[in-house]
Amino acid sequence: MKPFLLLLVAVLVFSLDLNAQCTITGTPVNASSLTCSSFSGCSIIYVGDGTSASSIYMDSDLNLSCLGAIQLVVRNNASLDFTPRQ
Q1: What three-state secondary structure class fits 79?
Q2: How far apart are CA 86 and CA 71, in angstroms?
Q3: I want to staple 46 with a disulfide (CB 3.0 to 4.6 A). Which of 20, 23, 35, 70 is the partner?
């Protein structure tokens, strides 16, 4: 019985899909201020919290390829601003 329980626990632990989540909030947040170290360990990055206004001003490339495959989710009341600044 003990080996069965141990096996069951091992299967459950290794079958969990754990995704670290990070959130970007504020208006505006400059893309140039965001780096891979800002999101170390995150596989899901949310822009906004779904209620407060948030935006990322794209003043530079947002290259997060060092994180590997991620999901970038823009929540309600959040935006990505590509408007050129004078």
Answers
A1: strand
A2: 31
A3: 23
